[in-house]
Write a structure and sequence with these properties.
This protein is α/β, with parallel strands linked by helices. It has 5 helices and 9 strands. Strand 7 (118-126), helix 5 (130-141) and strand 8 (145-155) form a beta-alpha-beta unit. Helix 3 packs across helix 4 (63-75).
Length: 177
């Protein structure tokens, strides 16, 4: 496992001043381009989910879709997309949130999860926690039980975990410790 985590850390590249000056973007596309590494990441994430009793993976727009859908497929679970406003064709619930570099709004279909359903939220990066907090709020609005939040990367210095209301959080690679 240590070797896979080291390979993951090495594959993520920093893009300075993207999408605006002062932001260092963590680019996961080299991870996706390496089929062995990508499969290892999905296997590592799946280890965090087995025996959880979850029935669905909730993936956050957009890179959370990549990891979340692959994880749902690996575990034999349903997948629920949480998308940016205006991208879902059916009736939705919505929630605004702040990013490190602006504001956005998430939506989920009103029938994406059922009351009492156990779900896991997945995204590529936990930074300030705004997007994950919005997704958590949407799941609670739909009366789902969020049993875990999973991230490939985490910027610990931005304190995103603190916004997730005590939900267990796991990240494969952390920066800023």
């Amino acid at each position: 496992m240590r070797q896979e985590i080291s390979r993951l850390r090495e594959a993520v590249r920093d893009i300075p001043d993207f999408p605006k000056p002062g932001i260092v973007f963590k680019d996961i596309t080299p991870v996706l381009a390496d089929p062995v590494l990508f499969a290892s990441v999905i296997e590592l994430l799946s280890g965090e989910c087995r025996e959880s009793g979850a029935s669905k993976i909730v993936g956050l727009d957009a890179r959370g879709f990549i990891f979340g859908a692959a994880l749902a497929c690996r575990l034999g679970l349903g997948f629920v997309p949480v998308r940016k406003k205006g991208k879902l064709p059916f009736r939705t619930h919505s929630r605004s949130y702040g990013l490190e570099y602006g504001n956005a709004e998430f939506e989920v279909h009103v029938d994406g999860v059922s009351p009492g359903e156990r779900v896991i939220i997945v995204d590529d990066l936990l930074a300030t926690g705004g997007s994950a907090e919005a997704a958590l709020g949407l799941m609670r609005e739909l009366e789902a039980e969020v049993i875990r939040c999973l991230f490939v990367l985490e910027l610990t210095s931005l304190g995103g975990r603190g916004r997730l209301g005590g939900v267990p959080v796991s990240s494969l690679v952390t920066y800023g410790e």
